Amino acid sequence: MFLPRKIYPELLEHLSRRQITVLTGMRRTGKTSLLKQLLAESDISQKLYYDLERIDNRAFFAQPNYEGIIAALKLQGVDFSKKVLIAIDEIQLLRNLPSVIKYLYDHYDIKFIVTGSSAYYMKNQFSESLAGRKKIFELFPLDFGELLAFKDVNAIPLNFDQAATYVPSEYERLRVLYDEYINFGGFPEVVLAKSEDEKKDLVKDILSSYINYDLSVLADIRSPIDIFTLIKLLSIRVGTKLDISKLASMTSLSRNLVENYLDLLEKSYLIRTIPVLSRSPDREIVKAKKVYFLDNGIASLSGELGSGSKFENAVFNQLLHKGEVAYYQLKTGREIDFIVDKEYSFEVKETATEADLKNVQSLAKNLEITKSFVIGRHPVKKFEGFIWGGFIR
Asked: For the DUF4143 domain, which residue ranges apply (predicted)?
């Protein structure tokens, strides 16, 4: 059964366009399911699907004479006097594929839908070859609203003002599911798994395959164990500023290599760094970025992440889909956890108080932001400006 994602209407709308539809995101976030659903819904009669994890499919597109590809497809009954739809999974596995697609796109009436697991590959090598010919869509693990949909639980999306209206019955209805989201994240197969042990095993398997398979394709990894060690160190630093020198010291890696690994982890959708928001661009460059994981299940694997940091990471992933996210900090150390679109400021506390709201409101004045909220996990006290985390969906 196909379970829709929030991004699907955009993908479906783009299906009718001549441009190449590019879907990118970490492995096992559901790209292939979306691609196959698009194939099923397309009204183009001639449809072809290729998974580049199969070596025969890679060999087919690796032949140097691109017209040879067309000749082979004609022998299989494809009529290029009519429109053709070609879907290709995991395009980063074949380095020359952008050149192949460009040639076929320019010379034949072919609609391409392609998927890949690296933002670096998609936005650099792939983009340079296909400038103006494609649109890139990014797919992340499920947000909380999508998790509810996968669980067949009805819950309408809310804006921040609506979310700030506390409804006790809704809290009771969704509390257990929100705790599950905080503890195990949003990979679709993890969400659908029945037991906690199964969820934990799946998350471990996802991280292992990411390190051993995805990263080895994207870069020359000297030691997968070094990457795993770095990931564990990052997981207990969720919501803190990156200290490259300290990470280098703790991993016994060079500073340059740590920076390269961090860049790789971000561009392959494991982590996300956010900048400090400042009224002075010069100061913004100087201050370190904060780090978060794009899935709570992976962030929690070390077993050392505190519940407060785990909750903050979950809220980050919920806000990530609401706009551009940054943080704010004074020299004194006082800070605002999250700022969205330079318009909304948020403090994140497991047990929130009115004093937390006053603090964020005070700091937000420095940025001329008038809309401030405190996001809490345990609604011990309810007050104007309080949002229970499960209402952000």
From this structure: 214-349
